[in-house]
Amino acid sequence: MNIEPLVKGLTAFYDDYIHQIVLVDDNSTDGTQKVIEKLAKKDPRIVPVIRSAPNGVGLAIRDGYKMATGEYILSMDCDFQHLLPELEDMFDAITKDGVDAAVGSRFSRHSVLINYPFGKILANRGFHLCFNILCRRWCRDLTNNLKLMRRETVDRMELTEPWFAINSEIGLQLALMKCGLKEVPISWIDRSFDMGQSSFRVLKVGGGYARVLWRLARKSKFGTRHL
Asked: What pTM was estimated for this model as a whole?
């Protein structure tokens, strides 16, 4: 139910700037594929990516990146947890400030959180505290999927995680690569029941995040060299 309203929202705000909209269906069973194919027939800029097993958030994001051909690549979840007008601030960060990547930060001083689960807050803050100490960086929210990156920056990454830990794999690489990175304050609104339910569980995915953190910290010699 989210897909068509999201596409309409993106085109309503940014129609003149959209090169393509890549919609990834990760082997769903709820009719998502039919919705995507219907939208693609109406707008040639819509690129369907219909995946088969094995499933995985990381695999879906990687396949979406492969199909993206624009100069800038914006990744986001299809659940309206972010406010579409705020995406303009992320584009300003790249086009006006000249950075290579912008990450939507849910934990800046100017961010607004509505009903963000307390357990996720603790896990997020703990993860970033460990990263900041291990890698000698100061970052607030690298694990959010809402990211805007230059094409060449995406091409430099090594993405291996098949599940949710890919969000940390991308964010940590941005912080440790030799590139300009800016965290942009954004709002976050917890999804209502009719927007779907997330399969993200802190205890279930925490091991993947820890693995990524330790691997990239060691690879960068704990922040003393660029990836």
From this structure: 0.89
